[in-house]
Amino acid sequence: MMNVLTDTWHIVVRGLRSRIRMPVFIFMSLFQPVLWLLLFTQIFNKSFGSMPGVDYTFRDFFTAGVVVMTVLFGSAFAGFGLLMMMDMGILAKMLATPVTRVSIILGQVIAAVAVSIVQAVIIFVIAAIMGVHVATGVPGVLLALFIVALLGLAFAAFSNGLALLVKRQETVMATTNLFTMPLMFLSSTMMPSQALPAWLNTVRQFNPVDYAVVGVRGLVLEGYVWSDLWRSLVVLGALAVVAVAFATLMFRKQAE
Amino acid sequence: MSVIETKSLTKVFPGDVRAVDGIDFQVNAGEIFAFLGPNGAGKTTTIKMLNTLIPPTSGSATVAGFDVVKNPAEVRKRIGYAAQDVGVDEQATGRENLTLYGHFYRLDGKTIRQRVKEIFDLVGLTGYEDKMVSTYSGGMRKRLDLAMGLIHQPQVIFLDEPTTGLDPQTRAHLWDYINNLAKTMGVAIFLTTHYMEEADRLADRIAIIDLGKIMTMGTSDDLKKSIGGDVVTLTPCVQKDEECKEFVRRTEAVLSGQPFVTEMKPSDGELAVYVNDGGSAIPSIMQIMNSQGIEVKSISMARPSLDDVFLKYTGRTIRAQEGERTTFAQLRRRASRRQK
Fold first, then answer.
1. Which of A18, A128, B84, B116 is 20 to 30 A off residue B310, Cα-Cα?
2. Chain A: which residues have CB within 8 Å of chain B?
3. Are residues B212 and B236 in the same domain?
4. Residues of chain B contacting A98 with CB distance shorter than 8 Å
5. Sign of the Cα pseudo-torsion (B255, B261, B262, B268, in order)
6. Which of A18, A88, A99 sits opposite B87 (nearest CB)?
């Protein structure tokens, strides 16, 4: 057990180190969310204010969505790291050592989530500079980061499991692109629930991204809405557990 | 004392591909043992079974005294492995790469620091510890890759095609390092290669492997002696067409039964004739060929090489195989090396 923890730690350090040494990628993946935050708030702010039942600006409303999107995109492509390790022979070499098997997959997932959490913090800082006021303050931001970390964990683990299943970068890329965008739009990320058609309000209840957005947005706009928060934490926590189990199982199958 | 021992070790891949087909061999402590064979002969598959990366279909193997199937964890603690692909992290320094493996082998921080120093010295990378691997040359990467499997002082080191894709000078250097390892660390080295010269220069014993089977095994000298005498190679024509095959067939027919011929092996476009004394056999051969009206384009004589040994036991030359099946990964690595 001790070995699992120390091995995982070393793999996480390795993952973070190589990412920090290529900061261009960290900023490139931040570029899109920041653009959305800056641009969409300009486009929608006017019409958004005239909607019934809305007493907040689109900028305040959309911050949660951009934070979630950043973590989603940051973690959904995490499987590429493992595929690169496979292609370069790094994984095979590691597997011939006594390293605990599960640590490799856990370390990869955790490193990916850690980077996306740093990105989420950057988004919160940019939002604050733009004048967004988080209702629950710093403690609320920390809870929000925990919620998106669960989402990130789920998607990073799922991406790693998928990578192990198909083993081809192109397939992982295509699959990931196929589901990330719809997950964004089939949720209340862009518009509040009262502005959405009934079918979409039904669909979004099966969308993990929506649970993250609802939880984080509550913390930004209103305060601690515990009924929403618990639902987000339970759903995303369960999903993370299932995804990590899936990734570990895939890894066991492929590694042995 | 043998540190590797296999019994009818077999690996069958889906589609009934018998990659390794019931091989038996032993490697002793401190010995350099080479698997010599063309690509696809089953060399890498054998290594992967011995270093616990894939399970055998049947048969058994013990490495450093432990069964690879029943006790893989104990095996892994006692082996080092350098694959054909250099498995080093380019976005890290040499020291970071090595330290990570030190942790994997459960060494404490102090031991790791000390061993890193020793090992960098051993593989001739002193002064490059804190340089990024992305700035290393191909040969340096290979040496670092080797070093990563040494930090825990293993009993057995597996080297899969250690010098494939390296230039001749770098290759010769690496041979020195590998030799040095066996001498200074007393470690057994199991290596695979398709380079005759590599097996000849490095290995104490060589097993010739083809189509998943060990065709013959012994020291380089023993293997060459097993051929007996000299090899006279006749090349009837330049192009390897049907006409040429006909020449080889006819030549074989007229020479068979001659008292000085011990054995003959045709391969594509050539006929190898094994004789006791090449010097006196050549005039006789030429006389017979002339009298039969068979034109010989070229004739040469050589002391037996490992290539002749390979031909004798497999019916093919290993030279013809070389470089034929280059994998995509190899091509990509070569391309990336050229860019640097």
1. B84
2. 3, 6-7, 10, 14, 17-18, 21-22, 87-99, 256
3. no
4. 73, 76-77, 104-106
5. negative
6. A88
| Residue A2 belongs to a domain | no
Where residue B285 sits, what CATH number does that domain have?
3.30.70.100
* Residue A51 belongs to some domain of the structure: no
pLDDT of residue B333: 53
Contact call for A96 and B148, based on CB within 8 A:
no
Q: Is the pLDDT of residue B75 over 50?
A: yes
What ipTM describes this predicted complex?
Answer: 0.88
B151 in any annotated domain:
yes
Nearest C-alpha neighbor of B75 from the set B64, B85, B60: B64
Model confidence over B41-61: pLDDT tens digits? 899 999 999 999 999 999 999
What's the pLDDT band for B338 if we cut at 50, 70, 90? very low
Enclosing H/E stretch for A4: helix A2-20
Q: Is B319 among the domain residues?
A: no
Give the integer Cα–Cα distance in Å for A119 and A20.
Answer: 12
Condensed to tens digits (0 to 9), the pLDDT of residues B293-322 reads: 887 888 888 878 888 888 888 877 765 554
- Number of domains, chain B: 2
* Range of the structural domain that residue B257 is part of: 229-303
Q: Give SS3 for B334.
A: helix
Specify whether B149 is located in the same domain as B235: no
**B59 assigned to some structural domain:** yes
Residue B109 has pLDDT above 90, yes or no: yes
Token output for A48: 């958004």
Phi-psi region of A120 (alpha: psi -120 to 50; beta: other; left: phi over 0): alpha
Residue of A93, A254, A256 to mutate, interface with B, max B Cβ within 10 Å = A93
Q: Does residue A256 have a pLDDT over 60? A: no
